[in-house]
Amino acid sequence: MSSAEEKKMPVAGEDAIHPVTSNQVARGDDNIKQAQSKEADQAAKFLASVGPFPPMTPEQEKAIVRKIDRWMIPLLLFMGLFAAVDKVQLATGALYGFKEDNNLHGQDYSWLGSILSLGMLVGIWPSTYLIHRLPAGKYLSACSMCWSLMTLCIAACHNWAGLMVLRFLMGVFEAIISPGATLLISVFWKKSEQPIRNGKLKTMVSDMYPVIMTVFSSVVNGFLSWVIGKIPADAPLARWQYLYLLTGSMNVLYSIFMIFYLPDSPINAHFLTVEERWHAVQRLAENRTGIDSSEWKWDQAWEAVLDVKIWIMFFFNIAVNVPNGGLITFGALIINNLGFDAQTSALLSMPNGVISSASGFLASYLAAKWQGRRTFVVMLATLVPLLGTALVYALPRSSTGGQMFGLYLMYCYWAPYVTAISLPQANTAGSTKKVVTYGILLLGYGAGNLIGPQTFREAQAPTYTGGTIAMLSCYCTAILLMGLYFIVARLENHRKDKKYGKAHQVEKENMDALVEVYQDLSDKKQEDFRYTH
């Protein structure tokens, strides 16, 4: 075969070279033209300009998924860990004189819990736009650096107004962490793989190594708080200041690391070879949700705003995160009010993360295994924190063991949240629609976390009856909303089946089909897209 009849694929380093025949090149010309069109996703351009490679074997696919797991889960896990530690240390700082040193009275402390969520509500708008226009990994790393610097600055602040500003700015920069991580999960893993990855990332559990690693914010924060409690009372700084300096410094160092090692998508994942990147992109075709397109499409933005399923999830996020906001801000104080000292309260708060992580991982695992019943898993998972809240509300304060058991069950609220967040991941296609969707959902997340601390009134301490009743109401609402989501998704699938017939699977070896899938179309505009419920 002459050189005119044979071309070789671009390679990097020691990647294997696979010849492409003249017929393949001729067929590829049309694919490249279509991939370079204005509508094309970056994945379409990548597939047409780099491939095709020989078909991927099941063993190769498993190896690629393992490699993605080993890199992406730890990278995103520790980013979420440090951000969560920054949030929950407000409560543990209160155990070591934070409120007294900063002259906080009445609802001042509650507002410090709420203002971070208000910052998230403000910050999500520019962040939603910027993560769509800029490399996702680099933007997440830059935001991580900024909120880490805010954490360091809190240690130098001594008045309520300054603390409010710093906490607000932390919220602005943290706004992108949840939708950003969700976006990266949706472009690295298939729909069927996403729930369990959500469980690993959101609950800080990883099983990629011989020993199960359980790293979560309350455990780390509780341990650090216990260590800080060993600092002598006559040290130059207050103990809560050392807590902020320690966690802020750790996060700054990790943010620098992420700038160099967190990829934006499989297309530029440094830990994959060129052939592995091509297969990693190709295998996601069945998601029909696209990977990346820097063009802003107003029709997709409006489709997101008018999508009933997204607004159901918006109100679900509010309902399930009202308890989150309250427990993050007041969890350690609730334990302290049961009669424990500061250091013991810090230690007793550590199981919160273990329970939260275990429940979230279990629910995510069930959602991945119980096909077509993801909303039912969410409803069942919501019953556990509902029971815990009922126990805390009904049992007398003198029943310390029963109160602690109920409180620990309340931390299972994370299970329905991390399972439910996989629904918009799986059910939203189109680059612009995805970022708008994640922005709307973060508004619900922020609103819930803003409301949560305000349901805990200083005048009602130590029982905080208003906060407990609010939690009970929110869990019941969340269950009803999940039932409604199931009905809407089933009806939309039935409507598509009636109009277009049964959905067809994507043929991964068919380049024309692959390029068509990656044309950055929304879920409603794809005839073969069906909604997960």
UniProtKB/TrEMBL annotation:
Membrane topology, record value: Multi-pass membrane protein
Stretches for region Disordered: 1-29
One Pfam family of this chain: MFS_1
Parts of the chain that traverse the membrane: 75-98, 110-132, 139-161, 167-189, 209-229, 241-262, 310-335, 347-368, 375-393, 405-423, 435-452, 464-488
Keyword Repressor: no
Keywords: Membrane, Transmembrane, Transmembrane helix, Transport
Primary location group: membrane
Residue ranges occupied by any Major facilitator superfamily (MFS) profile domain in the UniProt entry: 72-492
Subcellular location: Membrane
InterPro entries: MFS (IPR011701), MFS_dom (IPR020846), MFS_trans_sf (IPR036259)
GO cellular component, one term: membrane
An example Gene Ontology molecular-function term: transmembrane transporter activity
PANTHER family in alphabetical order: MAJOR FACILITATOR SUPERFAMILY (MFS) PROFILE DOMAIN-CONTAINING PROTEIN, PERMEASE-RELATED
Protein name stated in the entry: Major facilitator superfamily (MFS) profile domain-containing protein
